[in-house]
Amino acid sequence: MSLFEGLGYSNDKNVYIIDIGSAYTKCGLAGETGPRCIIPSTVTNSRTGKVTKIWDYRSTAELHENLKELLSVLIFRYLLMSPKDKRVVVVESLLCPTDFRECVARVLFRHFEVGCVLFAPGHVLSLLTLGSACGMVMDVGYNETLVVPVYEGIPIMLAWQSIPLGGKAIHSRIKDQLLDGGVVKTSQHQDIPVASVPDSLTEDILEDIKVRCCFVTEFSRGQAIQDVVLRGADASKMPTPTPAIDYPLDGSRIVTVSGKIREQSCEALFELDDDERSVAALLLDSLMQCPIDTRRELSENIVVVGGTAMLPGFFHRLKKELDTLAAMPRYKQTLGVKTFKFLKPPAKENYTAWLGGAMVGALETLPSKSLSRDAYLQRGRLPDWCSLDQETWIDDRTVQRR
Amino acid sequence: MTSLTKMATFMDVNLVRYLCTCGKRLPPCRLYLCRHCLKLRCADCVQHEVDSPYCPNCLENMPASEAKLKKNRCSNCFDCPICGHTLMTRATSQMVPSSEDPSKSTPKKMYYMACSFCRWTTRDGGLADQSTSNGGWKDEENPEAKRINTLLESYRSIAQREKAEKERKKYVKRRSHAGFQDRYGLTSVAMKWKIQPAMSNLSVKETEKVPPAPELVSPVEDFDPLPSEIFSDIVQLDKVTYLSHRLNAPEFQPPATKDLRPVHKHLLVRRSLRCRECDHNLSKPDFNPLSIKFKIQLIALNHIPEIRIMAPATFSVNKETVVTFTLSNPSVYSTVVKLLPIEGDTDLDYMTAKVDLPKSDLVLALHDDTAVYDDGTKAQQEFKDDPRVVVFRRANKLGFAAKVTPFCKEGEVKVSFMMKHEFRNTAAAIQSEDKEPKLEWLEHRIFINLGRIQL
Ligand SMILES: [Zn+2]
Ligand SMILES: [Zn+2]
Ligand SMILES: [Zn+2]
Ligand SMILES: [Zn+2]
Fold first, then answer.
1. Subcellular location, in the record's words (chain B) (predicted)?
2. What is the domain class of A135-165+278-332 according to CATH?
3. Of the N and C termini of chain B, which has fewer Cβ atoms inside 10 Å?
4. What is the ipTM of this complex?
5. Do A15-128+351-401 and A135-165+278-332 show the same overall fold?
6. CA dihedral in degrees (A225, A231, A235, A237; nearest 10)?
């Protein structure tokens, strides 16, 4: 007989698992193997049709209204369950600002009257999908890439690192290249420069070009490209370009997405900036901040999450970059590790953290770890323990860095 | 709004707003009246609830428990994975070996699904035709499901134990120090597998209940490089899915169109609305998805008098303009309305003009559904109207004049006042049978935008 028979599972309670990412919101129910929906983190005004990004808020009042709308879509369009007295797990980033989380809590408790909410850190949740308590969690998102080392279940807070490189940086790289010499073919067989119709390069089009045309190129080709583009090597060193793609902007216009754009746009993630930082270097920098005796285990348990990491070629490139960087003088002497190993979670990168949330949400211990509505209403705001180890700490750190 | 023509502007429902109990200002068609609290409510300050889910294509209700099991999707209806249009079943005949004589072949009816809008078919997805018309289409299974569920089972039993331990500790009154890992109770679970071997020889009984740690995945050291064709082959863009296609199937997210599968149609729900204060329903749809009726629908317009601007007027600063408003009565009882000025409030946000309201009571005739068939000769209730105040009267409607004097130099002319009216509480009457419904006085604050100052 199975040991688990007869256990009352809390997933009978239909726990909502919500992860409001910078670009996409993942939402579903506890105990399930994938989210019910992944939709853009935007709200559409029903009267004007105007689309607003959730994270682009000018005031908390605006955020409050937009969160109500977004959650209402999630609940009444996808989850189809009355929110009253429901349990909720909110997956959040280490970098989530206090006003955002306060607003999420206010909307959930006051407007939707949910029973309890657990705010859970995404990096810890991602590790949970592996049954692991140790690892470097790298989240390659839309606005930034964030690395958080977790050792024996405890995030090494002094060592987290972030860099504003992610999906958005690739979008602007595609846009820059298209504006610089890109050509649009019109239905009248005229060629006009993209720069004369810059408005046609919407965020959606840029994202679509990234997803359907671009890839993270191989390490050696990437280096050769960087040599020519950034370090002034002779143009003959440039690898043979990949074939261009005729990309339909709309029914009548076609823009040529050159092989250069396809291959070089994602280099934005791997080029070392003025401070010698890149997505790969970020991981090593974080590792360098970790106690020396933890580094070996951490470097052999790298977990990469976030939608941007789903670009073809990303993992292969990251691994090569790490190997190469680690052999460079600035790391070689002090890093103390040479091998990098990755753990692959049982989920697509863009919902790994969500899956961790779906696991935690299915446990009977959930209510005891969560904040109840009564407790929230009594205080009128989130208690300190919700943010203690995160915001307070980030504030100190931000100050130190400046 | 300024770009609209004057005519369109004066038809705009947003020009006359009533103050909701929650502080929002909304047109009365967007407000509800709770018959129990006798207060105005709006969609934002009531509790929304999910009524039974139904499929928008086959219009069949599905019990909530079944809907949950089927992940809120209809088992019989499918959407096109490319354009979202509903797929149609098509019949075709195929030659199959005859059952009597395998050397001969007989025609057999086979079915596939096709999109009549974008022409996608299940054959494009590499799916074999089915022998029954109502499908039997196999759903894809998440290849990681087993791994996820094994891990989840382990977490569950450890959480179970943790909970039991906590209960026990409550009696022992021993407070364990709350470290970081205890705060979320997440990582401590994974931690226990590490500690477990050390504990095993101490207490066999204790560890008996704990399942072995799930087999951890072995780390990956090398990843597959990009396929070399990516550098040489020409990409056929129509063979690559959009991100939205991929996200339609979160657990699979296929990059190639050939891997797209028909999408089970997502269910819809009708919502019912409940007053947060008294828990009574303000709106409850009919159970039958085919019906557009409501069991309960307490829209404010059906219960409280509605004010409208009758015709547009022109305004100049400090100059008196006579504006005609109409007032209509939705109630089956004649209703007395009092319009009262707001004293001592000079917030320019919603008051930029002085308004001289009728001092006398306005008596509205009852609303009679058969009144539309009247030729007007039928003896109406006698009203002794002051023609300077009541400009016209027709059925349950009257027009009244008010003098508006803007005190702002430019911008919008806005007035605000209170409307007090009789209300026959039929909800209370139901409880006490043949008695006349109880008469109540309700009071609403009205905000009216009359147009712009003429410069
Ligand atoms: Zn309201
Ligand atoms: Zn159906
Ligand atoms: Zn279609
Ligand atoms: Zn009420």
1. Cytoplasm, Cell cortex; Cytoplasm, Cytoskeleton, Microtubule organizing center, Centrosome; Cytoplasm, Cytoskeleton, Stress fiber; Cytoplasm, Myofibril
2. alpha beta
3. C
4. 0.90
5. yes
6. -60
Q: By the CB < 8 Å criterion, does A215 face chain B?
A: yes
Confidence at residue B174, expressed as pLDDT on a 0 to 100 scale: 43
CATH of domain A15-128+351-401: 3.30.420.40
Q: Are A256 and A262 in contact (CB under 8 A)?
A: no
Task: Mutation target for B interface from A24, A363, A387: give the one with most B CBs within 10 A.
Answer: A363
B63 CA distance to ligand 3 middle (Å):
29
A349: tokens are: 């990168």
Cβ-Cβ contacts under 8 Å, A257 against chain B: none
Across chain A, mean pLDDT equals: 89
Give the residue ranges of chain B where pLDDT is below 50. 1-9, 173-184, 195-208, 378-379
- Backbone φ and ψ for A186, nearest 5 degrees, come out as -95, 170
In whole angstroms, what is the distance from residue B327 CA to residue B308 CA?
7
φ/ψ region of A181 (left if φ > 0, alpha if ψ in -120 to 50, else beta) reads left
Burial class, A329, CB count within 10 angstroms (exposed 0-12 / middle 13-18 / buried 19+): exposed
**Alpha-carbon distance A225 to A222, whole Å?**
5
Compare all CA atoms of chain B with the CA of A340 and give the residue at the minimum distance.
B221
Kindly report, residue by residue over B38-76, the tens digit of the pLDDT: 999 999 999 999 988 999 999 989 998 899 889 999 999
- The full DSSP string for A157-207 is GGG-EEES-SHHHHHHHHHHHHHTT-EEE-TTS-EEEGGGSGGG--HHHHH
Q: In the structure, what pLDDT confidence band is assigned to residue A384 with cuts at 50, 70 and 90?
A: low
- Between CA B73 and CA B64 the distance in angstroms is 11
A164 C-alpha vs ligand 4 centroid, how far in Å?
A: 50
Whether B235 sits inside 8 A of A245 (CB atoms) is: yes
Q: How far apart are CA B21 and CA B15, in angstroms?
A: 19
**Mean pLDDT calculated for residue range A279-298:** 95
Instruction: Determine the pLDDT at residue A80.
Output: 95
Q: Residue B287 has what pLDDT?
A: 85
**Full-model pTM:** 0.88
Question: Is residue A254 less than 8 Å (CB to CB) from chain B?
Answer: no
Q: Which residues of chain B does A243 touch, with a Cβ-Cβ cutoff of 8 Å?
A: 232-235
The pLDDT assigned to A110 comes to 95
Q: How far is the CA of B214 from the centre of ligand 4 (A)?
A: 52
Task: Map out the domains of chain A as residue ranges.
Answer: 15-128+351-401, 135-165+278-332, 167-269
Report yes or no: A203 at the B interface, CB cutoff 8 Å: no
